[in-house]
Amino acid sequence: MSHHISSLEAHRLQYKPKMPKTLASGRIKIEKGSFVEPKANAAEIKQLFPATYGYPLVRLVEGESDLSTAPLCVGVVLSGGPAAGGHNAIAGLFDALKAANPQSRLIGFLGGPKGIFTNKWIELTAEKIDSYRNTGGFDMIGSGRDKIETKEQLEGCEKTAKELGLNALVVIGGDDSNTNAAVLAEYCATKKFPLQVIGLPKTIDGDMRNEFIDMSFGFDTAVRTYAYLVGNICRDARSGRKYYHFIKLMGRSASHVTLEVALQTQPNVAIISEEVKARKHTLDDVVTAIAQVVVQRAEEGKNYGVILIPEGLLEFLADFKVFLKDLGALLGQEEKQIEALPKEERVKFVAAKLSGASGELYKKLPASLQEVLLQRDSHGNLTVSQLETEKFLADLVEARLNEWKEQGRYKGKFSAITHFFGYEGRCGFPTNFDADYTYCLGYAAAQLIRGGLSGYTVSAKNLAHPVEKWEFGGVPVTSMLTMEHRKGELKPVIAKALVELDKAPFQYFAANRERWAVEDCYLSPGPIQYFGPSEVCDARNKTMLLEAGLE
Amino acid sequence: MSHHISSLEAHRLQYKPKMPKTLASGRIKIEKGSFVEPKANAAEIKQLFPATYGYPLVRLVEGESDLSTAPLCVGVVLSGGPAAGGHNAIAGLFDALKAANPQSRLIGFLGGPKGIFTNKWIELTAEKIDSYRNTGGFDMIGSGRDKIETKEQLEGCEKTAKELGLNALVVIGGDDSNTNAAVLAEYCATKKFPLQVIGLPKTIDGDMRNEFIDMSFGFDTAVRTYAYLVGNICRDARSGRKYYHFIKLMGRSASHVTLEVALQTQPNVAIISEEVKARKHTLDDVVTAIAQVVVQRAEEGKNYGVILIPEGLLEFLADFKVFLKDLGALLGQEEKQIEALPKEERVKFVAAKLSGASGELYKKLPASLQEVLLQRDSHGNLTVSQLETEKFLADLVEARLNEWKEQGRYKGKFSAITHFFGYEGRCGFPTNFDADYTYCLGYAAAQLIRGGLSGYTVSAKNLAHPVEKWEFGGVPVTSMLTMEHRKGELKPVIAKALVELDKAPFQYFAANRERWAVEDCYLSPGPIQYFGPSEVCDARNKTMLLEAGLE
């Protein structure tokens, strides 16, 4: 029994990603379109990006190619949390560079952006690439959460690029990383340093998308992984008929993951943060809504069910939101003072400093929540994934049901089991969709580089359709920027795409959820398939199909 | 978008389970073998089962059939926790009965054994069966944890059988349920009531197996589900390089699940309860062993890893075991008194009553653990799955590392994330192996019934080999029985199969684990595949292959 790789991995290494003819033909040219102004704060963005603001959209089309065939030295870096397909994006980039000129080289920076400014890298050879094709994870070169934005970091990038003779850098990351790509592109353009910077849209949350990019990569694999597990648990709930499963799913800022998993599995309840926000729901409203479904089901003799909760829910609750804002401001102002305190005294300090309703709310929280709320990640965000929102809600629902039981309004049995699915979905083998899509993204990035472009994110349209209809190009990062407060500072960011309540995916959910709440309409999507009927192994996710009007 | 079933489910409904020619040919006869004495307590078992003790082993072989072709009315019941393949066992039973005589009927008892003695059932028609072929879950007829053992329950079964004109009952369940099948068979034989009782070996834990039964059904699907998730998490750990994942896996009495998942994914640490027991390890020993691996890895610059923990671990720890025995005895003696107390006073009561080392241990436990330990399930077992052993261990390892850090013995960073995989793996679509195997089990059960047998569990051999070589038959339940204490009473039970430390699966693990601890030898088995290359979608699990000497 010699085990270097699994049987499935051996087969996946041989999978040939599908590409539209535009890319596969090799006869690729860049067609320039119009300039698109940022949706908001255009003046501020123009001021921050004087050298790179105003670039046009571009499309990759079939035709007599005038793209460079000179040997290129290109760097690639993975940034932030892993998403399935990262390795294929690198493979596509590699294959496209080699196809244009076998002398071209690809450099992989190690451990994320830090690998650039600390000059840690490996050359990505054919042998290396071949051993990672169609695999999950970011382990080929690692990843990291460092940013590229300070003067020191930018100069570090320049120094490394100079030493290596880099022509271009491809940054594979989410909204922050693509913004960083724009910052670096601007820095280079201003200094007339000849480094092109291209970004790729990665995030399992599905929130790095817009009119130019149908879907960020990794979303499809993540949602299918979670939907598989949720579908199994739905079937388990209906088999045993004795548990309510409270399942938290990754997705801090947006609820695309929860919505898609709900569309694929049809659970009894799925909370969508964006709706909670739009309707100004409080924590109490959400608890009441879930408890009411439990009561309705109990009346039908069903003391079991499945409830989906997006990871970021608490931040979208009307009362919690104000509280989090107050807390965020306090933590910003008193950051150093709080850090200087021993852990156990921080909670007391914050409780004393927070005034009004937010102070009251903080004092009423369980101690574990009080502590976790004081932690922030390197982007200045609350580490909300540490909050056990699913247990918190299950406990509150149970308490509500006990009250109602005493009042004679509820006669059922309630026993909750909680789950959190997140890490499981980030590093699996990419679905055929994600494998194809990321390979194309990398392949397209190489073409933008060959075309001399910088400060662009690779754009991708028609993804809900068969691969042949996919369209790739580039969107200037600056066209996607807006200004937002981060740690009290106004900064250029790519606005996260949220679930839109008037669009088809949410509308379909809203039209069906009352039935799903009481009847058992559970679906079992099953595990991701890589072989077999195309309608199974090449299927598009529901969000994309509904958005494209294909379902 | 009309969603009754998923695309994969639509395809799985059409899957034709593979059967060995012996069964598929229809020319089936029963070959009687020798009587096998129980491994222990033969005299007691003979005394408890005077009418059914002494039956011979039987084999289903190809040949001129003398099995009954009279129309039969057969009942089937699902018992205990769900396991993938339950629906196929019923489908195999249905098809075999109809093949022998289209007038035969199959009755499905609802909600587990209780459905028999409360006379709740549905007739399983072709239409019903066809809509559940190759699906996961026990939702076709539900399941339950009631036993069939009291006089009232036995008489209830007799009454229902009489009313329905049942010729036979097939009990699909684990060790307890198969024991119950023997009790009912004995009851009927003694009363000369013409109801035959046949059991099928179900349990995802893989502990209902012996020299007659290679593997219980549902194990293969469960371990592949968990191995998929663990493999993804290994890849995530290596990509992000900052977390230790403590993953608890289902398996209370035996560690087959944890061992198999370790063989499929090659994590840094996997604790095997049977080894812990054999070596008389204490909680402190286990914590030290894990912490040592963390230190070793930190010295190589690796502050991440994956640690597998079997659900039942705490019960196998030398110090905890004595404690649990003392606690179990106390709970047995004082059951009614404790139940009469309000919840919050029970802990105090038990703490005061437990003396010596066990009392000390109980008092030192976290409050949450103290409470959970007072809960028992209907089989009188501790509800150990409620204990968050994975968090408990992660906390203890962190504390140990902090001590070592102060002593200068450890310089790494430690950040733990915990998971529990259990419910996810019970109700997925059965693997091709489990789909084929369970269909054959049901098909074989029908032949034992046609042969007039009762008090048998369907036996299955050569399962590691291709389906053509599979051999089915029957083993008298009494031949598998032994006597064990349950709730202070000596009772006949089927001994659970534990991981044997001198057998190939554990030996392979033990020979490799030191390397796996430090080097990153992680494997990504990927999700269960139902199509594609046979080596992927029809693969046998490592436990079976190693036991059969095929790896």
Fold blueprint:
2 copies of one chain form a homodimer.
Chain A: H1 7-13, H2 21-24, E1 28-35, H3 42-48, E2 56-62, E3 73-78, H4 86-100, E4 105-109, H5 114-117, E5 121-123, H6 126-130, H7 151-164, E6 168-173, H8 175-190, E7 196-201, H9 219-240, E8 244-249, H10 256-265, E9 269-270, H11 273-278, H12 283-299, E10 305-310, H13 313-316, H14 318-333, H15 335-340, H16 343-353, H17 356-364, H18 367-372, H19 389-406, E11 416-421, H20 432-450, E12 456-461, E13 471-476, H21 477-480, E14 481-486, E15 489-494, H22 504-518, H23 534-537, H24 542-547
Parallel strand pairs in A: 3-4, 3-6, 6-7, 7-12, 8-10, 8-11, 9-10
Antiparallel strand pairs in A: 1-2, 2-13, 4-5, 12-13, 14-15
Helix pairs in contact in A: 4-20, 9-10, 10-22, 12-19, 14-17, 16-17
What kind of sheet is the major sheet of chain A?
A: 9 strands, mixed
CATH topology of the largest domain in chain A: Rossmann fold
Spatial gap, N to C terminus of chain A: 47 Å
Which assembly state applies to the chains in this document? homodimer
User: How many strands in all of chain A?
Assistant: 15
Spans of chain A of at least 5 consecutive residues whose pLDDT stays below 50 are none
Key descriptive features of the protein:
551 residues, alpha/beta, Rossmann fold, four-stranded parallel beta sheet, 24 helices, 15% strand
